[in-house]
Amino acid sequence: MAERAGVVEARSVPQLRGFASTDKSNDWRRGRTGSAAVHEPELRYTTGDLLRLKPVSRIAPPADYAIRRATAGDLDALVALEQAAFTTDHLSRRQYTKHLRSDSARVFVAMDEGGLLGKALVFFHKGSDIARLYSIAVADRARGRGIAKALLAKVEQAARSHGCRRMRLEVSQSNPSAIALYERLGYHRFAEHREYYENGEHAWRYEKRLID
Question: Which residue, 25, 112, 182, 201, has most beta carbons within 10 Å?
Fold first, then answer.
């Protein structure tokens, strides 16, 4: 199999049709004021007052992308990213079509105005409390935006909704960046799969407990 759960940087892929643009207004940063001048009384603080002041936490800006379930309209972009991200074990258009319709699978996509940023595929098995992250990929233009982390959070949320208590995945032993990400997010190595991929590469198996 291909480097399914390894976070792979890929080339840009075609823009999806029908993707609604998000509001890129920066008015919330600039702030709007009326034309009349506002006069406020001068405030003076003693040293003691300043020591007692609590720091104001920074508010993170809203994400400039959205994560949602994939639809049939995303197929072209999904296949393009699959080809760009992986060198072997590609998921076909037919396989993606099947997974989009399946109750035992979820395909999620991260999107912005330019199109597809990343995707993740997770499987659920009837009668099992273990979900399996089968594939995750991030486009090259989306590097450094936290896409992989956000996609992981989404699939974990979906797994919990299906009653899964654990998430498992495989990652190539030659992908240290992906391994570091998984371990940072609470995944623990529990086994090795020799010659897991079609090209002969070995994989580590990881697991994360989602529900105590």
Answer: 182
Q: What is the pLDDT of residues 170-185, one digit of tens each?
A: 999 999 999 999 999 9
Q: Are 201 and 29 in contact (CB under 8 A)?
A: no
| Domain membership flag for residue 96 | yes
Query: What is this structure's pTM?
Result: 0.71
Domain count, the chain: 1
pLDDT in tens, 34-71: 333 334 344 454 545 545 554 444 555 567 899 999 99
Identify whether the C-beta of residue 147 lies closer than 8 Å to the C-beta of residue 10. no
212 is a domain residue: no
Q: Is residue 69 part of a domain?
A: yes
Q: Which residue do the tokens 């049939």 mark?
A: 72
